[in-house]
Amino acid sequence: MSNLSNNIKLVDSLTARVGPAGEVQDILDWLIERNRQVRVDIDLVDFDRLSGWHFNSDSGDLEHVSGKFFGIRGVEIRTDGFPLLREHWTQPIIDQPEVGILGIICRMIDGVLCFLMQAKIEPGNLNCVQLSPTLQATRSNYMQVHKGKAPRCLEYFRNAGSHQIWLDQLQSEQGGRFLHKRNRNIVIEVEEEIASHPDFVWVTLGQLKALMRYDNVVNMDTRTVLSGLGWDDRDILPVRDRIHTARGHAMLRSLEKKNGGEAINRTLFWLSELKSRYSLNTRLIPLNQVKEWDIRADEIVRPDGRFFRVIGARVLIENREVASWDQPLIQPMQDGLCALIMKQIDGVMHFLVQAKLECGNLDVVELAPTVQCLTGSFRSGLPHFLDYVLNARREQIIFDINQSEEGGRFYHEQNRNLLLEAEKDFPKNEIPDNFRWVALRELREFLRFNNYLNIQLRSLLAAIDLFNL
Amino acid sequence: MSNLSNNIKLVDSLTARVGPAGEVQDILDWLIERNRQVRVDIDLVDFDRLSGWHFNSDSGDLEHVSGKFFGIRGVEIRTDGFPLLREHWTQPIIDQPEVGILGIICRMIDGVLCFLMQAKIEPGNLNCVQLSPTLQATRSNYMQVHKGKAPRCLEYFRNAGSHQIWLDQLQSEQGGRFLHKRNRNIVIEVEEEIASHPDFVWVTLGQLKALMRYDNVVNMDTRTVLSGLGWDDRDILPVRDRIHTARGHAMLRSLEKKNGGEAINRTLFWLSELKSRYSLNTRLIPLNQVKEWDIRADEIVRPDGRFFRVIGARVLIENREVASWDQPLIQPMQDGLCALIMKQIDGVMHFLVQAKLECGNLDVVELAPTVQCLTGSFRSGLPHFLDYVLNARREQIIFDINQSEEGGRFYHEQNRNLLLEAEKDFPKNEIPDNFRWVALRELREFLRFNNYLNIQLRSLLAAIDLFNL
Fold first, then answer.
1. Number of other CB atoms surrounding residue B54 within 10 Å
2. How confident is the model at residue A241 (pLDDT cuts 50, 70, 90)?
3. Which member of B165, B266, B269 has the closest CB to residue A269?
C-alpha cells in the first residue's frame, strides 16, 4: 500500500459527506439514541468506601488492592526558571505505567474510506456516550496477558500485517496530570467485512471532522488518533483543486514547500536549546509527603481551590448489561482553554505554538497550543496571548468548541478548543523565546515521532478540516 | 545559510585530505607531541581516601560533598521478556542530571571547511590526549551559572545566531551506565578568525574520518557530534561523481531514494510496537540496596566479575600547569564489541540494526549496532550474529578499530568498532523481531530527532567515509 493511494483514500473520505452511516445529523441522532438507552450514575463517595481501593499504609498513595490499573501518587518537581513556573513544587499525579492502546479500523466501503467508531460510555463523560476508537485497551488487555475476555475487534489489530498499518505512534497524555503516560495510536485498514454491532458505526473522515464542530461528541482518544493521519508533501497535489478556501490553500502551500526540511531542522535546534536551557527533574514521592494539598475523607485538594481535585466515584452503568465499579477520578477546578493562533506568513499558514514544560513530560517540553490554561490560572501571571484570544473578533474564529478530556480518568472535564486567525498587525517576530511560528508541514513531521506535540495541540489539529476553513 | 551550501562545504572538507594542519600524519605527530608534553598519573585509591567524595550516610550513594558533578547511585529495573534480558535486576549507575555540551566550531579556511579540534586530556583515556570537540562543558559552565572562568571559545556558541547553527541535537550517552543522560551536540560556523592556541588545531572532515581509522585518536564526544553531520537527499547530487566505490554508490542511492518517507514510517511503526510490547521501569534506589554487587573499600563490583566496576581515582595531570583531583571512574571488566553488518538490498546499502533496551534509556529502546556486547557476556546467551561477526573474512571488513569511551567517566575503556559487509547468502528476512535493515537515509532522519540512535551506533556511523568504503 503506497502513501499515494492511502492519501487519495483519505482525501476521498474527507470530501465524502455521506458515508454508509448517512448524514452527520444521522450520526448525531444515533448517538443521542445510544445515550438515551444508557443510564450512568456516578456517586461521589469517601475514599474509605471505595471498593478495591485503599491508601497505602506507608506511602499514603491511593492504589488498587491488586496493584493494577493506576495509582494516585505524589511527585516532586524541580526545574529552573521556565517562564511562569515555580522552580520547585509537589503535587498528586496519576501513575499508570502501562501503555494504552487506541486503535481505529478503516475500510473501503462503496469506494469511500470509512472508520469504525464506537459509541462508548465513560464514567467521567459529561454526556455519557461519545464517539470513540474501535478499540480502547490496556496493554495487558491487548497482549492478552491475563487470558480474559478479549476486547471487541482486538484480533484485527493483533493479526494486522505491516501493509495494513496506516499509523502506529506512541503519543503523550496530559503532562500536568499523568507521569510519562503514553498511548499507542494505531490505524489499520481491513479488507474483509466486519460483523455489525449496535454500539459501532462506520463514519468517514469528513463526517468525523464535521462532528468535531459539536461540543463533546468526538472523544479525546479519537481526536489524538486522527491527528496522526495526514498527507505528505508529494502526494497532496492532486487534492489542490478540491480545496475551496484561501485559508485552506495557505495551509496546503506549507505541505508543498520544497525546503521544509530546513525549517524543521531550525525548529528542532530551537527545541534542543530549550531542552538544554531548562531542566525538568520529576520524581515520585509518597502521596503523604505532597505539600500544599490536603488529603481529606472525600477529596485530595488544594486549600486555595486551584488546578484539580481527586475524588472517589461509585460508577453504575445500565444498558443491556449492568456494570458497577469504584474508582478515583480527577476533577478540574475550572474549565480550560486551548487556543491556537494561526497567521499567513509569506503566503503559508503558520501556527503559533509554545514549548510547554509540564511535570509529567517525558522530555522536558512538548509543543503546545498558543494558550493552554485553566481559567483559574488567569489570576497568577497572565498566560501570553490570553487577552488576544479572549478578545478575538468573530470573523477571526475558525472554530470554538468544547471538547472533553478522557472520561475514564477525568470527571466532567471539558476544554474550550479555539482556532483563530490573527489579524494582519499581529506581531510576527516579537514573541517570547519559547514560542514559535510553525507550518502544518512541520507539525505533521513532528507528529510522526513520539512526544513532540502534546495532547492539547493534537486535539486542535485533529479538528482542522482543510475543506472547511 | 542553506542546506545546499552547507553540504557542498561538507563535501569539500571530506575530499580535502590536506587541511591547514597538513596531512593526517602531521596531525598524528602533533597529537603524539601533545601527549609527550603531558604527564598523567592515575592512582587507584580507596573510596574513603577520595577527597571531596563520600558515601551518603542514608542511601550509601557515592556523591561529591558539594552535591554537584555526578553520583554513583542504585537503580532497580523491571522489564518483561525483552530478548536476552532478565525481568528484574538492580545495579549501580551514574546519575548526572545535567546536560553536557559538546560543541565544534567550523570555519571556511582557504576554501575548505575546517573543524576546530582540541587535544584534550581525560583521566580515563588509555592514551592521555585525544582529538576532542572545541568545547566540552557542563550545562552550568555553559550557562555561566557560577560566574567561574569561561571555557575557551564558549562565547562563540553563546553568541551564535541561528544562521550559524549547523547542528543542535540532544543525544544519549551509554544507557547501560548512565541514567537518562544526554549531551547537547552543537556545530556552529564562525566567519571571523579565531586566535590560535597550542592545544587546538583545524582539521577537515576528511582528515577526521581518516583519523578515525586509527585506534583511540578521535574521542567519543567528537564522534557523536560528527555522526549528526549529514547530507540530505536533495543536496547530495553534486557529490555523486566524487564517490569512487560501488559501496559508496549503494549508500548514496538510499539518500537519493524518493519514497524514503514511507520506509521511515515503517521503521517508526516497528519501534512503536516494540516500545509498547516491552516496558522499561527504571527507578533510582539507594546504592546500599543494590543486590549482586559488593561495595568494597576500593571497588564496587560483582563477585562474578561481570560488566564493570566502580573505582576511586586520584588524578594528577602535569603539562603547562599542574592539576589534581579525585573522582570515581567506571572500569569495564572486558573490552567491548560494537559491530555493524551492512548489505545491499535492491541496490541500496542497508544496515542491520537492533532495537536495544538498556536500563538508562529515556524511551525503552534505541537503535544499536548489530552486535553490542562486552566480550564477557558471550558466555550467557550468545548475542545474535556474534559468531558471524567474529568469523568474518578479511574482505568483508570495511574497518576494525578500537575506539575509546569518554575518558572523563570511564577508565581505559575501548570498544572494538567493526563495520562489515555481509556475504550474498546472509539472511535478509530471517532476523529476530527486534532487528531491522535500515538504509542510511533512515538513520540520518532518525539522527535529527533525539534518542533514536544510541551512542555506539552513532560512533560507528561517524566513521563511515563514503569516499573510502
1. 14
2. confident
3. B165
Q: Which of A261, A254, A417 is nearest to A335 (CA)?
A: A417
Closest alpha carbon within chain A to B284: A283
**Can you give the pLDDT at residue B259?**
59
CA Rg value for chain B: 22
* Residue A197 near residue A152 (C-beta atoms within 8 A): yes
pLDDT computed for residue B118 by the predictor: 96
Sign of the alpha-carbon torsion through A169, A173, A179, A183: negative
pLDDT tens-digit series, residues B351-372: 999 999 999 999 999 999 999 9
Q: How many domains is chain B built from?
A: 2
In this structure, the answer to whether residues A381 and A264 fall within a common structural domain is yes
Pick out chain B residues at pLDDT < 70: 1-4, 17-21, 146-147, 231-240, 257-260, 375-381
ipTM rounded to 2 decimals: 0.91
Classify residue B74: in a domain, yes or no.
no
Do β-strands A112-121 and A365-368 pair in parallel, antiparallel, or remain unpaired? Answer: unpaired
Looking at the complex, does the CB of residue A363 fall below 8 Å from at least one CB of chain B?
Answer: yes
Over the Cα atoms of chain A, what is R_g?
A: 22
Report which DSSP code applies to B143. Answer: H
- Selection from B183, B173, B185 nearest residue B227 by Cα: B185
Q: Residue B14's domain is classified under what CATH number? A: 3.90.79.40
Residue B193 sits in which domain range? 6-41+98-242
Could you say which of B242, B263, B289 is where a domain stops? B242
| A196 part of contact set with chain B, CB < 8 Å | no
Closest CA to B340 of B176, B461, B213: B461
- Check residue A192 and give its pLDDT: 95
Residue A348 lies in a domain: yes
Q: How many CB atoms lie within 10 A of CB B428?
A: 12
Rounded to 5 degrees, what are φ and ψ at B266?
-60, -40
| Residue A148 shares a structural domain with residue A37 | yes
Distance CA B103, CA B143 (A): 14
B13 vs B15: CA distance, rounded Å: 6
Give CA–CA dist B134/B118, Å, rounded: 6
**Boundary residue ending a domain (A213, A242, A271):** A242
> Is the Cβ of B429 closer than 8 Å to some Cβ of chain A?
no
* Residue A287 zone, left/alpha/beta (φ > 0; ψ -120 to 50; rest): alpha
Q: Identify whether residues B145 and B274 lie together within a single domain.
A: no
Distances (CA, A) of B406 to A196, A432, B130, B277: 60, 37, 10, 32
The pLDDT assigned to A1 comes to 43
How distant is the Cα of A209 from the closest Cα of chain B, in angstroms? 24
Asked if residue A266 lies in contact with residue A446, where contact means CB atoms within 8 angstroms, the answer is: no
Same-domain status, B207 and B271: no
B3 SS3 class: helix
Compute the nearest-CA separation of A99 from chain B (Å).
Answer: 6
pTM for the model stands at 0.93
Q: Does A448 touch chain B (CB under 8 A)?
A: yes
Cross-chain residue pair A448–B268, CB shorter than 8 Å: yes
